[in-house]
Structures are given as structure tokens and as C-alpha cells.
């Protein structure tokens, strides 16, 4: 009698018919589908200039999504990433207009965003307050601080360094893309090739078991919110460079899209399953979707509706992930 081993891989046809296959590759398949559809529907979609514009536009979202991935991998969520980014941007703008060197202003902006993340982490890890409540409160706190510090007015930031960051490139690859790629690579190494990354996934997957194995889950929780805050500060640098100013108005679109990119990337909202490449692809998918709809002349009123449908579909597919 022929023996069948458990290590045998199913045939390609069987894998394609398996809904788990589509769930695992949803973001990649969705992005490829959008490229084909919009490439046919709009001749300018696949032009070099438009591709570069999409990559630059996606860079900020990629950085925010990577930070959100660390938090969600522990079973938490950070609703303040976009306003923390705004707060960091305002700190950069305020200090620069008061005569600080751009390097010092940038360092202070990243530090301020990291401190906001640390405050959330302390309240969640030490105070044992639900992350939803804490980060929702931090959303308002950072929004208020940005408005108070700026007096509700944008601060123009004319810096040769930031202008070069926004417009410079290495060959065809812009500095924005390089920064986002560097953040993603470092995050991947940290999450999957360090002890800290193992602790992050263990904390999200089974907190009680992790504590029994000696993992200091409270410190891990605190650390991921600091990481998310610091990455919001890095995103603030890119935002100021792109706009040429520190804008105090909160942009909730970045928050919703960062969480959406993580969901599209296959990171389990209940924790324990992490990814960096997935959220990066998710951010590219959302950027391509918005860009393609704009090129086709679809009203901006309908674009959030399309994004919502895509995210809900991805969330449904996540039930079948292997």
C-alpha cells in the first residue's frame, strides 16, 4: 500500500481552490489586480512619473503602518499615530522657526513623538487601561498640543535638507522611498530575527504563556508603543519635507489607512501574527487604489467608500488564513 506523508505539498490546483491561499496572498493579488485594471483604464497610470509619485505618496503611510504593525502584533491598537505625527511635525516647525538648527529640530520632533508613544505605553502596560481608551485619549492630547504650540497656524519650514529629502534621489529611487524601505527592512529584522521580536509575537499570541516563560510582557507592550511613536516622528519628517510646512490640522486619513494597510497585510488583529512586508504591500495597494481612482476622474467622495470595501473584504478573508 502506498504511503502518504504529511509533508507532501498539495497540487497547485488544490492550493488555488483553497480560500486560505487567497487569504494569505490577498494584498499581493489585490495590488497586482489594481495595476492591471488601472494600467488598462488609464494610460498615465503606469508612466514612470506616476509610479514615482505613488511611491513617494506611499512612503509616509508605509512608515506609519510598520509602527502600527508592532502594536497590533501584541494584540493592541494605536489610534493616535496620525496625530502623533502631526504633533511631531509641529514641534519640528516651531523649533525651526525659533532658530533651532534643522537637525536639532528634527531630533526634538522625533523625541516628542516617541514620548507621546511612551505615555500611551505606560498607561496601557502599567496602568492596565485598555489600549483603545488610552490611544483615543492620546489622539485628543496630541491634537490639542499641536494646535496650542502652533496657535492653529501652519509654520513654513524652508530647509535645504528637507527640500533635498523631498526632491532628491539615488538614481531613479527617491529619498522618501529609501527611508521607507530602510524602516521596513530594520523592522523586519527586529520582528523576525531578534529575541525582542519573538517576545512581541509571544505577547500577542499568548500573554499568560509568555509571562510563564519569563517574557516581561509589560515592557514589551511599552516598547511597541514607543516604537510606534518614534516612527510617527519619522513620518513627521517626511510630511514636513513634502509639504514644506508643519501643518497643525489633524489628518485622520493616515490613521485609518495605516490600520487598513496592516489589515490588508495579514497581521492578525488579535495579536500573535506579525508581518512587515504585508503592511508595506497593503500601503502600496491603498495608494494605488486612490491614485487610480483619481486618474479615472472618480470623485473624492467615493474613494473612501472603495477603500472601505477593500478593507472589509480583506478582514473577511483573514478568517481563512492558514
What does this structure look like?
- By secondary structure, this protein is mainly α.
- It has one domain (26-318): ABC transporter involved in vitamin B12 uptake, BtuC (Orthogonal Bundle), CATH 1.10.3470.
- The protein is 73% helix and 2% strand.
- The chain has 15 helices and four strands.
- The chain has helices at residues 12-17, 19-24, 26-41, 48-73, 81-97, 102-125, 131-150, 160-167, 175-193, 195-205, 207-212, 217-243, 252-264, 277-295, 303-318; strands at 155-156, 169-170, 173-174, 245-246.
- The strands form two sheets. Strands 1-4 form a two-stranded antiparallel sheet.
- Helix 4 packs across helix 13 and helix 10 (195-205) crosses helix 12.
- The radius of gyration is 21 Å and the shape is globular.
- 45% of the residues are buried.
- Residues 1-8 have low confidence and may be disordered.
Keywords:
ABC transporter involved in vitamin B12 uptake, BtuC, mainly alpha, single chain, about 325 residues, transmembrane transporter activity, globular, membrane, two-stranded antiparallel sheet, ABC_transp_permease
Structure in a nutshell:
With 322 residues, this protein is mainly α.
pLDDT < 50 stretches = 1-8
Number of strands: 4
Shape estimate: globular
SS element count, helices: 15
Q: Could you report the average pLDDT, rounded to the nearest whole number?
A: 88
The value of Rg in angstroms is: 21 Å
| Percentage of β-strand residues | under 5%
The figure for the number of domains is: 1
CATH architecture: Orthogonal Bundle
**How far is it from the N-terminal to the C-terminal residue, by CA?**
31 Å
Give me the CATH fold name.
ABC transporter involved in vitamin B12 uptake, BtuC
Q: Widest sheet: strand order?
A: 1-4
Order of helices and strands: HHHHHHHEHEEHHHHEHHH
Structural class based on helices, strands and sheet pairing: mainly alpha
Amino acid at each position: 500500500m502506498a504511503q502518504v506523508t504529511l509533508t507532501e505539498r498539495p497540487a497547485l490546483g488544490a492550493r488555488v481552490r483553497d480560500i486560505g491561499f487567497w487569504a494569505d496572498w490577498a494584498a499581493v493579488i489585490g495590488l497586482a489586480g489594481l495595476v492591471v485594471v488601472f494600467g488598462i483604464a488609464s494610460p498615465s497610470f503606469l508612466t514612470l512619473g506616476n509610479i514615482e509619485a505613488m511611491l513617494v505618496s506611499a512612503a509616509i503611510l508605509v512608515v506609519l503602518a510598520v509602527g502600527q504593525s508592532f502594536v497590533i502584533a501584541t494584540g493592541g491598537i494605536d489610534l493616535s499615530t496620525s496625530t502623533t505625527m502631526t504633533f511631531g511635525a509641529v514641534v519640528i516647525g516651531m523649533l525651526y522657526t525659533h532658530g533651532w538648527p534643522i537637525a536639532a529640530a528634527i531630533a526634538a520632533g522625533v523625541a516628542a513623538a516617541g514620548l507621546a508613544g511612551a505615555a500611551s505605553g505606560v498607561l496601557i502596560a502599567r496602568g492596565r487601561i485598555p489600549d483603545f481608551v488610552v490611544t483615543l485619549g492620546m489622539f485628543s492630547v496630541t491634537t490639542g498640543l499641536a494646535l496650542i504650540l502652533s496657535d492653529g497656524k501652519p509654520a513654513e519650514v524652508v530647509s535645504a535638507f528637507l527640500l533635498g529629502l523631498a526632491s532628491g534621489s539615488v538614481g531613479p529611487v527617491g529619498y522618501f522611498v529609501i527611508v521607507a524601505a530602510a524602516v521596513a527592512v530594520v523592522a523586519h529584522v527586529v520582528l523576525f530575527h531578534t529575541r525582542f521580536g519573538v517576545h512581541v509575537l509571544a505577547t500577542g499570541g499568548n500573554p499568560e504563556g509568555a509571562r510563564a516563560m519569563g517574557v516581561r510582557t509589560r515592557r514589551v507592550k511599552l516598547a511597541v508603543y514607543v516604537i510606534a511613536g518614534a516612527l510617527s516622528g519619522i513620518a513627521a519628517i517626511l510630511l514636513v519635507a513634502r509639504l514644506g510646512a508643519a501643518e497643525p490640522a489633524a489628518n485622520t486619513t493616515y490613521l485609518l489607512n495605516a490600520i487598513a494597510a496592516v489589515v490588508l497585510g495579514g497581521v492578525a488583529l488579535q495579536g500573535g501574527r506579525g508581518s512587515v512586508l504585508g503592511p508595506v504591500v497593503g500601503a502600496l495597494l491603498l495608494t494605488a487604489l486612490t491614485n487610480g481612482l483619481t486618474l479615472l476622474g472618480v470623485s473624492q467622495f467615493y474613494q473612501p467608500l472603495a477603500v472601505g470595501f477593500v478593507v472589509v473584504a480583506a478582514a473577511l478573508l483573514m478568517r481563512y488564513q492558514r
